[in-house]
Amino acid sequence: MKSEQIIGCKYRVVKRLGRGGTSVVYLAENIALKNLWALKSLSKNSEWFTQEMREITILKELSHPMLPRVVDLLEDSDFYYIVMDYIPGMNLLEYTQMNGKIPEQRLLAWTLDLLGVLEYLHGRNPSVIYRDMKPSNLILDDQGRLRLVDFGTASLHREEATEDTAYIGTQGYAAPEQYGSGRSDGRTDLYNLGMTLFHLATGMHPQAIESMPAEKALRQAGLSAKYTRFILELIEADPEKRPQSSGKALKNFENVARGPRLFFRNRPETAQWNSGKIIGVSSILPNSGLTSLCILLGSCLKKRGFHTALAELNESGDFLRLCELFEQKDILKARDDTCFEAMGMTFFPGVKELYQVPRRKYDMLILDTGPMDSKFNHSALNAADSQLILCPSAEWKFFRIFEAFERIRPGDDWIYAVCSDSKQEETILKKQYKLHPAITFPAFSNPFSMSQQDEKQMGRALEKILRLAGRK
């Protein structure tokens, strides 16, 4: 395939990004929208075609901020073309070759992210077993976030299967059962994760364990005793001796994170467990207090010690009007072409794309993605680690929720919120409409002035969001 070649009258090939197995991945531009995508070409004549197509079968059903989305599928007489998120960045194998082994503090944060995405995959029905986690399949994107790519070896876990039909994986990272001695399951992914962490922590390929015991290598790399024991449990040869699920591994990891090296110092316990630094917020209806809720969330996070920013990914213009109000009240601290500071928070008005916000500067980022109308920024909401959906506060308007769902597919992990003086509407959402989880925020009229009782209720709701984020 050549540069400038047009695929399906929609995408222009920019350049080749790489080859994997029997497929080739290109950088392509959507001709109409002028945005970039990864385009994977699969030959219909390849003996591995069925295995390669497994990737699209699995990915099209997934929605998680660490996973690429499949957005389009095209074909001609010779090839299928899978159009997916383009993730600019560097894979962790290249990163370690350039920068050396990863410091424990950073590796702890990555471990939490990776356990979170495994728990998401294993929690599907049927479970998705990834089977090939390794540094080269993990991309550190240009915003400093980990992304898990290449689902060509993933499988759907079936209880009736007793063994894998073929060896699939990468030597050194693959678990013993992947060599044909048993069936791959969630514990297989935990072994792969353990070997990946070993490589990142020591700078040594896992095959080097043959010449140096893993425990000695990890200790020489300077890892704490708790973290070393955690990794050694993951790489037990016998699956029965590993944590029996990703949820159990997360629970074990809690003991590591509670040591002296916490991710967030002097923060509440839930903050240590917030695996998602980005909260995306949308509303079913326009003019329902969405921006005010975002401000309330930011204010509560700021009071809990988080360095917080709010980004307006819609065309309402509310943030610029806020800026003018802050200036009139003489509480505007700073302002430039892209953002302004007030009330201890940073505001980014009129953001077109999420990459325009320097996310690494902030502990927490709240995205005001606007109401679910024709201009709804669905991609920004999906990019968040937690999605909060503001529902109508009146029960008789709840039918509008399902009208919105006819246009926009709801996410499996969405958190539904109502603003009310009682729990009645939350209960109806859960029991009658089967929307879980649901949260009640105080019914407020002014986000800048709340009663002590409302602040307590707001705090409880925020704590619940952080707990839910920690389980994703």
Q: What is the element layout, followed by pairings?
A:
Blueprint: E1 6-7, E2 11-20, E3 23-30, E4 36-43, H1 49-59, E5 70-75, E6 79-85, E7 89-91, H2 92-99, H3 104-122, E8 128-129, E9 138-141, E10 146-148, E11 155-156, H4 186-202, H5 214-220, H6 225-234, H7 246-257, H8 269-272, E12 278-283, H9 290-303, E13 308-312, H10 318-328, E14 332-335, E15 340-342, E16 345-348, E17 364-371, H11 378-383, E18 386-390, H12 399-407, E19 415-419, H13 424-431, E20 438-441, H14 452-470
Parallel strand pairs: 12-17, 12-18, 13-16, 13-17, 18-19, 19-20
Antiparallel strand pairs: 1-2, 2-3, 3-4, 4-6, 5-6, 7-9, 8-11, 9-10, 14-15, 15-16
Helix pairs in contact: 3-4, 3-7, 4-6, 5-6, 6-7, 9-14
Number of domains: 3
- Helices, by number, come to 14
| CATH secondary-structure class of the largest domain | Alpha Beta
Q: Low-confidence parts, pLDDT < 50 over ≥5 residues?
A: 157-167, 259-276
Which sequence of strands runs across the widest sheet?
Answer: 14-15-16-13-17-12-18-19-20
Largest sheet descriptor: 9 strands, mixed
Q: State the CATH superfamily name of the largest domain.
A: P-loop containing nucleotide triphosphate hydrolases
Tell me the number of strands.
Answer: 20
Overall mean pLDDT stands at 82
Q: What percentage of amino acids are in beta strands?
A: 15-25%
Q: Just name the CATH architecture of the largest domain.
A: 3-Layer(aba) Sandwich
Instruction: Identify the overall geometry.
Output: globular
Category from helices, strands and their pairing: alpha/beta
Q: Radius of gyration from the CA trace? A: 23 Å
Termini, distance in Å?
39 Å
Helicity level, as a percent range? 25-40%
| CATH topology grouping of the largest domain | Rossmann fold
